[in-house]
Design brief:
This protein is of the alpha/beta class. It has six domains: 5-113, Glutaminyl-tRNA synthetase, non-specific RNA binding region part 1, domain 1 (Helicase, Ruva Protein, domain 3), CATH 1.10.8; 121-181, Arc Repressor Mutant, subunit A (Orthogonal Bundle); 233-342 and 487-523, 3-Layer(aba) Sandwich (Rossmann fold); 358-437 and 446-481, Glutamyl-tRNA Synthetase, Domain 3 (Glutamyl-tRNA Synthetase, domain 3), CATH 3.90.800; 535-606 and 736-812, Ribosomal Protein L25, Chain P (Beta Barrel), CATH 2.40.240; 609-733, Beta Barrel (Ribosomal Protein L25, Chain P). 36% of the residues lie in helices and 17% in strands. Helix 24 links the parallel strand 12 and strand 13. Helix 8 (121-134) crosses helix 10, helix 10 (148-158) crosses helix 11 (164-179) and helix 23 packs across helix 24. The longest helix is centred in the first third of the chain and has 16 residues, at 164-179. The protein starts with a helix and ends in an 11-residue tail after the last strand.
Length: 822
C-alpha cells in the first residue's frame, strides 16, 4: 500500500521510531514498503510502544526476506511482548531458518527464544559481580579504557535473555563503584612508547605470540558458501510483490511442489552458470563461476553450464567454444552443458499457457511507444484484448506471418507498480532478416510453407547458432531465465545485484505458471580499477583495434589474463578473498589481484635471467677463449644437494648488463655499476669498472671494461642480473619482451561517460625487441612462466616462433600501482 511521504513518517513515528530514523527510512522505497507491510501485518497501525516498534523495524530491515512464511507467528509474539529483546528476535529468526516447513512445535520455538524466561535485576547483578571479580585486576589497570563490550558479552553469555539496557546500566554502575569518577588521565589517548630495537630472538618470540593471538576466522571466512540454505529449506517466502492496488503477492513453494523437486534432485544442490555467448568471459565471470560451480562442489551437488542463447544476432559459435574452454581452464567441470534454446518448445508451450491464464497478451506497440507508455505508467491499448485473439496472434508470430517489430508477447503484470521491472515485460519478440532474393526462395524449397512466406513477405528466419532456423520468435531473458531455472530444478539461482529488482518479475512469472521456485540470491558485482568490464565497451575496443583482440594481455578477460601468464589458481584465490557479499558499489584496486598473482607465481615460476636493454661489458682480465659454467638457482631456497634446482649459465669475457644498471656518476644510494665501483654479478663474480668506451658522438656508451675478482674477496652491496656470450663472438639468444601497464589511466574510466576512450593509456604496451636471455630459455613452450630476476614474472606468448621467443610481463615484482585502494 503506497503512502505519501508525510503519511509514512507519521506511521513510523507511531511505532516509536525517532524522527531521524523515520525520515531516513522514507528515502529508501524498498525499506519503506517493507516496514509499512510489517506494521499492517502486525496490526499496529494505531501505534505501539518503542520496544515493539524497534523489533518490527529490525524485522523489516534485517530479516525481511528469510522469514516471511512465519511472520504471523513472529508478530503475535512481538506485539504481545513474549519476544521483547533483540536476542530473542535473533533466536526466533535462527529457529525459523532451521524450520522451513509451516509445521513446527510451539513449545520448541518458545524454548529456543526464551519465551517466559524472566531475568531479574538481582540475576544480572549477580552475573555482573562474577564477571567483575574475575576481571578485577585488568579493569583496575585499564580503568575506563576497559573494553566494556567484552564485559557485556560475558554477562549476556550466561544470561542470554537479559534486558541489554539493564545489563549496560549495571555494568556502568559497577565500573563507577570500583573506579570512582573519571580523571583527566582516563580521557587521554594512550601514547605509543618508542620501543627499543629488539634482538632477533625476541622478535621471533613476539611474532610467534602474535600469530597465536590471531583470532579464529569466522565460519563464512572458512566457508563462503555457508550463507546459503539447504534445498529442503526452500519453503520460505522468497519475496513479496507489492501491487499498485495495495495487494501483496507472497511467493513460496508449496510443500507438494518442493517434495516433487526434491524427489527429482535427490535433495542435492543444483546451480547453473548461465553466460550469454556474445563475447569473451572476463574476471567478473570468474566470480560467478566461483559462486555457482563452487557452491555445487562444496555441497556435493551439480552445476550446469547453460548458454543463455536467446539473441541469435549477437551470438557466435566462437564464443560458445571459448566459454566451454575457459570454464575448464578455470578448473570447473559442468554437470551438464545445456542451452536455453534446448527448451524453446517448452518455453513456447509455457507462453501459450500464460496467455490462457490471462497473464500475457500480444501487443502491437513499437519500441518507442512501449518506452513512452512505460515512462507514463500507461497500459497498452491492446492489454485487454481477448485471450483467444492473443492465442491466434501468438501462433501467427510463431509461424512467421507477422513482421519483426509489428508484434511482441508481453506479460500482464502491473504498469503502475513502483518497480519498473513489473511494467508488462516482453516475453517474446520476432527476429527475422529481410531478403528479396530469388536464391532465398530456392533455399527454402525443401520447406514449401516457409519458402512461400519468404517470397510473399520478403522474410527469412534469423538463423540461430544452436537451434538453426526452426524459430523466428525468441523468448526474452525475463521470460526464459526463471522458467529454465525451474525446468532444470535449480536449487540456488545466484546472480549479481543489478538483477535484484528483477526478483519480483522472476517470482511473479513462476507463481503465475505454478512452477517450482528456486532460491534467488544476489551478490555484489566485481569491479576492478583501471579497466572496463562492460561487454559493450569490451566489444568496442576489440572490434575497433584499440587492443589486439579479446585475449589482449591488457584486458581483464580470462583469455587475456591467461595469455598474460596469470594462473586460474591465482584468479580463484583473488575471488575467494573478495567473499560472496552484497556490498555493492565498491571498486577493488587492481593491486589486490596482482598480490594473488605474485603469491602464486612466487611458488611456481622458476627463476632465470634476461637483460632488456643490453650494455656490453668486457672482462679484461679473463682470457678471450675461456668460458666458465656457473650454477644459477631456479628457486631461491634451493638445496645444494638437489641438482634439479639449478641450471647452468656461461660466464665469459663478454657479458651484458642492463643499461639502467650503469651510471657515469656514482651516488650514496645507488647500487649499480659506475667508474671505479664494484658490483656482484648474480651467481657469479664481483666486477669493477675500469674504463668506459664511448661511441663517436662521445655521449653514447658503447661498452664498459671491467675486471673480475676470481677469489671473490670483494664484497660489494649491489647485485646485478646479467647474460653472457656462450662462446667467443656468439651473442646470447635474442627475445622479444612485452611490458604491459594498466590499460586506462583513471581508476574508474566508466565515470568519464562518453569520454572513456580518451582515457586509454598510450603507454600500456611497450615492446622490447632485442632483449638478451640465458640459453636455458630457448626450449620453452607457449604458456611457460618464469621470474626474470629483478624484473618481474613473465610468460611465453603465442606469437613466439622458432628462433624468436616472445614473453609477456605478467606482473612486476612489486606493486607498481602504489598503495591504497580497497
Amino acid at each position: 500500500m503506497a503512502l505519501k511521504a508525510d503519511e509514512s513518517v507519521k506511521l513510523f513515528l507511531s511505532i516509536g521510531l525517532d524522527e531521524k530514523t523515520a525520515t531516513t527510512t522514507i528515502n529508501n522505497p524498498k525499506v519503506t514498503a517493507n516496514l509499512t507491510a510489517v506494521i499492517h501485518e502486525a496490526g499496529v497501525t494505531d501505534g505501539c510502544d518503542r520496544t515493539t516498534g524497534n523489533l518490527l523495524y529490525t524485522v523489516a530491515t534485517k530479516h525481511h526476506s528469510n522469514l516471511l512464511l512465519h511472520r504471523p507467528t513472529l508478530f503475535s509474539y512481538i506485539v504481545s511482548s513474549k519476544i521483547k529483546t533483540p536476542a530473542q528476535l535473533d533466536a526466533a529468526v535462527s529457529f525459523f531458518d532451521n524450520h522451513a516447513a509451516e509445521d513446527f512445535k510451539l513449545d520448541e520455538f518458545e524454548e529456543a527464544c526464551g519465551v517466559g524466561v524472566e531475568v531479574s535485576v538481582e540475576d544480572i547483578e549477580k552475573a555482573a559481580g562474577e564477571v567483575f571479580e574475575e576481571n578485577k585486576k585488568t579493569i583496575s589497570e585499564q580503568r575506563y579504557r576497559t573494553n566494556v563490550g567484552q564485559l557485556l558479552g560475558h554477562v549476556r553469555k550466561s544470561l542470554p535473555w537479559a534486558d541489554p539496557k539493564i545489563v549496560k546500566d549495571v555494568i556502568d554502575r559497577k565500573m563507577y563503584e570500583l573506579l570512582g569518577e573519571r580523571t583527566a588521565a582516563d580521557n587521554e589517548k594512550p601514547t605509543k612508547k618508542k620501543e627499543k630495537k629488539e634482538k632477533p630472538a625476541a622478535k621471533a618470540e613476539e611474532k610467534k605470540a602474535a600469530v597465536e593471538a590471531t583470532p579464529e576466522p569466522s565460519e563464512e571466512e572458512l566457508n563462503p558458501y555457508s550463507i546459503f540454505p539447504q534445498p529442503e529449506q526452500n519453503l520460505m517466502v522468497h519475496t513479496e510483490v507489492f501491487y499498485s492496488d495495495g495487494s501483496v503477492l507472497k511467493c513460496n513453494n508449496k510443500k507438494e511442489v518442493l517434495d516433487k523437486h526434491l524427489k527429482v534432485t535427490g535433495g542435492k544442490v543444483y546451480t547453473r552458470f548461465p553466460p550469454e555467448p556474445n563475447g569473451y568471459l572476463h574476471i567478473g565471470h570468474a566470480k560467478a563461476m566461483f559462486v555457482d560451480f563452487g557452491l555445487a562442489k562444496e555441497r556435493g551437488g551439480c552445476c550446469y553450464l547453460r548458454y543463455d542463447d536467446t539473441n541469435p544476432e549477437a551470438e557466435k559459435k566462437e564464443y560458445i567454444n571459448h566459454i566451454e574452454e575457459i570454464v575448464n581452464w578455470m578448473g570447473w567441470e559442468p554437470f551438464k552443458i545445456t542451452y536455453t534454446s534446448d527448451y524453446f518448445q517448452e518455453l513456447y508451450d509455457l507462453a501459450v499457457e500464460l496467455i490462457r491464464r490471462g497473464h500475457a497478451y500480444v501487443d502491437h506497440q513499437n519500441a518507442e511507444e512501449i518506452k513512452e507508455y512505460r515512462e507514463k505508467k500507461m497500459n497498452s491499448p491492446w492489454r485487454d484484448r481477448p485471450i483467444e485473439e492473443s492465442l491466434r496472434l501468438f501462433d501467427e508470430m510463431r509461424r512467421g506471418k507477422i513482421e519483426e517489430g509489428k508484434a511482441t508477447l508481453r506479460m500482464k503484470q502491473d504498469m503502475q507498480n513502483d518497480n519498473c521491472n513489473m511494467y508488462d515485460l516482453i516475453a517474446y519478440r520476432i527476429k527475422a532478416s529481410e531478403t528479396n532474393s530469388i536464391s532465398g526462395c530456392r533455399r527454402m524449397r525443401s520447406r514449401p510453407f516457409f519458402g512461400y512466406l519468404i517470397c510473399l513477405y520478403g522474410l527469412q528466419f534469423t538463423p540461430h547458432p544452436h537451434a538453426g532456423d526452426k524459430w523466428c520468435i525468441y523468448p526474452s531473458y525475463d521470460f526464459a531465465h526463471c522458467t529454465v531455472d525451474s525446468l532444470e530444478n535449480i536449487t540456488h539461482s545466484l546472480c549479481t545485484l543489478e538483477f535484484e529488482t528483477r526478483r519480483a518479475s522472476y517470482y511473479w512469472l513462476l507463481h503465475s505458471l505454478d512452477l517450482y521456485m528456486p532460491y534467488v540470491w544476489e551478490y555484489s558485482r566485481l569491479n576492478i580499477t583501471n579497466t572496463v568490464m562492460s561487454k559493450r565497451k569490451l566489444n568496442y575496443i576489440v572490434t575497433n583495434n584499440h587492443v589486439d583482440g579479446w585475449d589482449d594481455p591488457r584486458l581483464l578477460t580470462l583469455a587475456g589474463l591467461r595469455r598474460r601468464g596469470v594462473t586460474p589458481t591465482a584468479i580463484n584465490a583473488f575471488v575467494r578473498g573478495m567473499g560472496i557479499t552484497r556490498s555493492d558499489g565498491s571498486m577493488i584496486h587492481v593491486s589486490r589481484l596482482e598480490y594473488h598473482i605474485r603469491e602464486e607465481l612466487n611458488k611456481t615460476a622458476p627463476r632465470t635471467m634476461v637483460v632488456l636493454n643490453p650494455l656490453k661489458v668486457v672482462i679484461t682480465n679473463l682470457e678471450s677463449d675461456k668460458v666458465m659454467e656457473l650454477d644459477a638457482k631456479r628457486w631461491p631456497d634451493a638445496q645444494n644437494d638437489d641438482p634439479s634446482a639449478f641450471y647452468k649459465v656461461p660466464f665469459s669475457r663478454v657479458v651484458y648488463i642492463d643499461q639502467s644498471d650503469f651510471r657515469m656518476k656514482d651516488s650514496k644510494d645507488y647500487y649499480g655499476l659506475a667508474p671505479g665501483k664494484s658490483v656482484l654479478l648474480r651467481y657469479g663474480f664481483p666486477i669493477k669498472c675500469t674504463n668506459v668506451v664511448f661511441a663517436d658522438d662521445n655521449e653514447t656508451i658503447r661498452e664498459i671494461h671491467a675486471e673480475y675478482d676470481p677469489e671473490k674477496k670483494t664484497k660489494p652491496k649491489g647485485v646485478l642480473h646479467w647474460v653472457a656470450e656462450s662462446s667467443p663472438g656468439k651473442e646470447p639468444i635474442k627475445v622479444e619482451v612485452r611490458l604491459f601497464e594498466k590499460l586506462f589511466n583513471s581508476e574508474n574510466p566508466a565515470e568519464l561517460n562518453d569520454d572513456w576512450l580518451t582515457d586509454i593509456n598510450p603507454h600500456s604496451k611497450v615492446v622490447v625487441s632485442d632483449a638478451y636471455a640465458v640459453s636455458i630459455l630457448k626450449d620453452t613452450a607457449v604458456g611457460d612462466r618464469f621470474q626474470f630476476e629483478r624484473l618481474g614474472y613473465f610468460a611465453v606468448d603465442k606469437d613466439s616462433e622458432p628462433g624468436k621467443l616472445v614473453f609477456n610481463r605478467t606482473v612486476t615484482l612489486r606493486d607498481s600501482y602504489g598503495k591504497g585502494g580497497k
